[in-house]
Amino acid sequence: MKKIITTTKAPAPIGPYNQAVLSGNTLYTSGQIAINPETGELILSSIKEETTQVMENLKEVLAAADMTFENVIKTSIFISDMNNFGEINAIYGTYFNEETAPARETVEVANLPKFVNVEISAIAIK
């Protein structure tokens, strides 16, 4: 059985999907982009600020399922320019304990929704 997870502290979906789905003890989040949930505006002033907003949105989706980044077992990072990897990775790394960090992949793609520079999704377990 699946349970839909939603929160107003992260951006509302911009299509036919949910912020996250909990199936048993496993949470599958949708990709988060740098939309400020309070204003609905994109945060694109710098790759660091954009990545921070993405991670804060992801944190709120996890919290809505009573989880934290410690519950995350896998992430997927999609970026529009691999030259931004170092700055994205530096911000991303502040949200995890290096010794218990999740598995992940980072993929450069041609475009992302709303032409953002980074999108991150996660799988977490209780």
Automatic annotation (TrEMBL):
Pfam families: Ribonuc_L-PSP. GO terms for cellular component: cytosol. It comes from the Bacteria. GO terms for molecular function: deaminase activity. CDD domains: YjgF_YER057c_UK114_family. NCBIfam families: Rid family detoxifying hydrolase. Belongs to the RutC family. This is Reactive intermediate/imine deaminase.
